[in-house]
Design brief:
about 170 residues, mainly alpha, about 0% strand, globular, disordered C terminus
Length: about 170
Amino acid sequence: MLRHYWQREAAPTLDLPAGSDAAAYTERLLARFGNDSLRHRLQQIAMDGSQKLPQRWLAGALENRQKGRSQAATALGVAGWIRYTAGTDLSGQPHAVDDPLAETFATLHRCHGDDPAALIDAFLALDAIFPKALRDDRPFAQQLLDALRRLQNDGVESAIAALIPTASDRDA
């Protein structure tokens, strides 16, 4: 999934220096993420997500949308983050949500947690996070909703498998 995201969604939105090898950088990045001695916990990465998403994911999603490129991995990541902000994992185990908007997120989950479509719309309405162009983009909202439903109903592995084309699809 990371390879898919980086090569198809992130790298095309970046102004890389001439002669840069995005594929080689992707492999170095994956090796770094695979280094378990770094001890960088997912909780640390998720911390302050409302502040990180706009520039790290949503700006690229907006550019990809405008240029007709895929943003499926971004939508899955954002849906996963929205699910994370519920304060429980998919098994119902609680975890802390360390974010300046944590109370807002808790309220949104209390009010809309039983209705994934309403939850997605409520999150998209957060001006501090989502740019107007993405808020108003119904196909993006549908991608978020589909990803959130797949995460909640089928789990993370299924959501990732649905995103990544099979080897025969890539070769076609």
